[in-house]
């Protein structure tokens, strides 16, 4: 495995095509869209090649929202390890993200979010900001208007309880004894998605201890009525699911008061073992910040000293989530995406015409091959006989490989002429067997687990923080179908079931829902290339309906964009400011469908006209999805890899699925590669 990065671009590992080699291209009329696209491809490829780390990987910053920064500061305050420089730098970032109305959003250009605003506010109070300062007074006023602390999410109120700002009695209860529930029982820990599971187990320990580190100030200004901060709410009727689970929560509160000490102690110890067994080699848990934060707190409450190797490694891993976008400003990533970014960058460069045996692609393949996971993880609870072979999203996450990354890595490796073909073939074989084995009963694929579809976890009052299960999705299923088709397995029964499920999931408007990207443009941009690769022709009704929908939502400027509000407000579906990545997804679908008309040319022109001088694109809008409606992501490499992929496929003018086998579209790419091999 590889050490993590702070998000810096690294140093080039090779020379990129030179200006002199670019001039050797066949002259193209300067005003044509094809010529503009070729120039854009050349610049974008050079830019992306220059960002490759010497070890072979790519990683862009992963931007989310200020709850990551606030909770990092709250953790350090709670543990007594506050650093003034870190506090000041994080506070600067938090302030920079505040809206004019005083609130903090969860994505660029989005509306204010109550929980994010409260967490940002208390973090800034701890950092030294006075409640009388204008930006703080605005935040408090906005929060009260939105319902105050009582209306915020459970996670937010847990953090407030840690400092005495909220009563533990007024939080939903989930006891550590949940660790003992058998795997067949509803609400056992494996019925939760892996990200929720990794968060809930340590939080049951925290909730059982109910620690308080009193803050030096109160937050009455965030309550609608400071005299009654948590007004009683009427329960739902017992005949409804909400009513049933509200009364279950009541019963769990009662159980807390009567639970046998020996059982509680055994549960705590079992949770500690579960947490420690899942700590990764770099000290983190799951490669993501929230489970790591709660695991550190839980183990510390269980008696682990901060200098204990487990906690010391855990705290050091949290430091690696810090990105310093400018001097004196610190942003926290929720996780890091090197495997995902590397396979997407490899696909983009190959589809743009970089030679298959170019040193950059070979080095990327080498690194990806070294990241394959060959031991069982939590996924094996449902698939105990399945041999491992997947890839994770992050640098270190052997417990949780995911099906999406695995499919895209296989697609990337297929595009590289690696000198050790046997090693590549063996890795691909293991990966395909693992992905096929992770197919859910309905014929589709989720991200981390098979058949993770229980309706009960989302009903728990404790679980109001976003998606807590991992059902199959159109985008992941599409990528697996595309992988199978690339291997000549489009007629395999597993592939056919995936295709049938995809076709059944197409919406009436012709689009597909996007689970891990925003939103219908991402889902459609994933599904159409997969179906085309699997043999559905341009005239297939599903393809025609998707094409018609993409035409209907194209912006007047020629690009495509979709706001994150499309997850909750239907009027936003397919609508939003044009972005490079979403324009690329639409183009990838249209090109796969055989389209080459005005709509495609307008989209290509938008990309070429909005390219920056350095070959990249600017994309402040978030186009990645963590949890629909609740957690959004701006992958900083998306703005580079997807436009390059789309433009490369356009320039090469080949049917999708064959593009990476054609002659290089990049001037000088083959010549540069040979020169480097001889150097």
UniProtKB/TrEMBL annotation:
GO annotation, cellular component aspect: lipid droplet
Domain Squalene cyclase N-terminal: 41-325
Family annotation (SUPFAM superfamilies): Terpenoid cyclases/Protein prenyltransferases
Record domain Squalene cyclase C-terminal: where: 337-651
Endpoints of the signal sequence: none
Region of interest called Disordered, as start-end residue ranges on this chain: 1-31
Record pathway: Secondary metabolite biosynthesis; hopanoid biosynthesis
Tree of life domain: Bacteria
Keyword Isomerase appears in the UniProt entry: yes
Gene3D superfamilies the UniProt entry points to: 1.50.10.20
Pfam families referenced in this protein's UniProt entry, alphabetically: SQHop_cyclase_C (PF13243), SQHop_cyclase_N (PF13249)
GO BP annotation list: triterpenoid biosynthetic process
Family matches, as InterPro entries: Hopene-cyclase, SQ_cyclase_C, SQ_cyclase_N, Squalene_cyclase, Terpenoid_cyclase/PrenylTrfase
Keywords, ordered alphabetically: Isomerase, Metal-binding, Repeat
Coiled-coil residue spans: none
Any one GO molecular-function label of the UniProt entry: intramolecular transferase activity
Family: Belongs to the terpene cyclase/mutase family.
Protein name per UniProt: Squalene-hopene/tetraprenyl-beta-curcumene cyclase
């Amino acid at each position: 495995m590889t050490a993590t990065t702070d998000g810096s671009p690294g140093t080039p590992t090779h020379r990129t095509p030179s200006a002199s080699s670019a001039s050797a291209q066949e002259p193209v009329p300067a005003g044509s869209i094809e010529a503009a696209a070729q120039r854009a491809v050349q610049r974008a490829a050079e830019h992306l090649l220059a960002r490759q780390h010497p070890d072979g990987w790519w990683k862009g910053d992963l931007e989310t929202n200020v709850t990551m920064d606030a909770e990092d500061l709250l953790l350090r305050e709670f543990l007594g390890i506050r650093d003034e420089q870190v506090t000041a730098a994080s506070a600067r970032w938090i302030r920079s993200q505040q809206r004019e109305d005083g609130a903090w959003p969860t994505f660029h250009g989005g509306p204010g979010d109550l929980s994010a605003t409260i967490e940002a506010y208390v973090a800034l109070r701890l950092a030294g900001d006075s409640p009388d300062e204008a930006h703080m007074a605005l935040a408090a006023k906005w929060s009260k208007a939105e319902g105050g602390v009582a209306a915020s999410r459970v996670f937010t109120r847990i953090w407030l309880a840690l400092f005495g700002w909220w009563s533990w009695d007024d939080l939903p209860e989930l006891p550590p004894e949940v660790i003992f529930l058998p795997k067949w029982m509803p609400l056992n820990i494996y019925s939760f998605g892996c990200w929720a599971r990794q968060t809930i187990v340590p939080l049951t320990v925290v909730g059982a201890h109910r620690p308080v580190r009193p803050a030096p100030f109160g937050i009455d200004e965030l309550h609608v009525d400071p005299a009654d901060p948590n007004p009683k709410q009427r329960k739902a009727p017992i005949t409804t699911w909400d009513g049933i689970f509200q009364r279950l929560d009541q019963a769990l509160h009662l159980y807390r008061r009567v639970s046998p000490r020996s059982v509680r102690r055994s549960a705590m110890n079992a949770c500690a073992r579960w947490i420690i067994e899942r700590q990764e080699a770099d000290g983190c848990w799951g490669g993501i910040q929230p489970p790591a934060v709660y695991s550190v707190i839980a183990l510390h409450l269980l008696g682990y000293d901060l200098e204990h190797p487990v906690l010391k490694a855990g705290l050091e891993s949290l430091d690696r989530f810090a990105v310093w976008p400018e001097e004196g400003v610190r942003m926290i990533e929720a996780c890091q995406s090197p495997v995902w970014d590397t396979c997407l960058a490899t696909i983009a460069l190959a589809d743009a015409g970089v030679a298959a045996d170019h040193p950059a692609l070979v080095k990327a393949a080498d690194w990806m091959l070294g990241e394959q996971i060959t031991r069982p993880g939590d996924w094996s609870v449902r698939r105990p006989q399945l041999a491992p072979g997947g890839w994770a999203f992050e640098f270190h996450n052997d417990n949780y490989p995911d099906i999406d990354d695995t499919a895209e890595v296989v697609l990337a490796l297929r595009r590289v002429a690696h000198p050790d073909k046997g090693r590549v073939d063996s890795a691909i074989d293991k990966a395909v067997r693992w992905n096929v084995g992770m197919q859910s009963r309905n014929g589709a694929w989720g991200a981390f687990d098979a058949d993770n579809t229980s309706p009960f976890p989302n009903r728990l009052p404790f679980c109001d923080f976003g998606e807590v299960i991992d059902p199959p999705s159109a985008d992941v299923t599409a990528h697996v179908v595309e992988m199978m088709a690339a291997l000549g397995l489009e007629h395999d029964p597993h592939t056919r079931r995936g295709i049938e499920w995809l076709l059944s999931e197409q919406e009436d408007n012709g689009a597909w829902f996007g689970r891990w990207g925003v939103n219908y443009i991402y889902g459609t941009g994933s599904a159409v290339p997969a179906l085309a690769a699997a043999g559905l022709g341009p005239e297939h009704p599903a393809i025609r309906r998707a094409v018609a929908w993409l035409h209907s939502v194209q912006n007047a400027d020629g690009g495509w964009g979709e706001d994150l509000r499309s997850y909750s407000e239907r009027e936003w579906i397919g609508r939003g400011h044009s972005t490079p990545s979403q324009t690329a997804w639409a183009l990838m679908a249209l090109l796969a469908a055989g389209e080459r008309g005005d709509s495609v040319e307008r989209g290509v022109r938008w990309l070429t006209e909005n390219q920056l001088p350095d070959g990249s694109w600017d994309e402040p809008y978030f186009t990645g999805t963590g949890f629909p409606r609740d957690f959004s992501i701006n992958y900083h490499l998306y703005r580079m890899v997807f436009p390059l992929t789309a433009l490369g496929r356009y320039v090469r003018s080949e049917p999708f699925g064959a593009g990476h086998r054609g002659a290089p579209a990049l001037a000088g790419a083959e010549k540069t590669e040979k020169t480097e091999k001889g150097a």
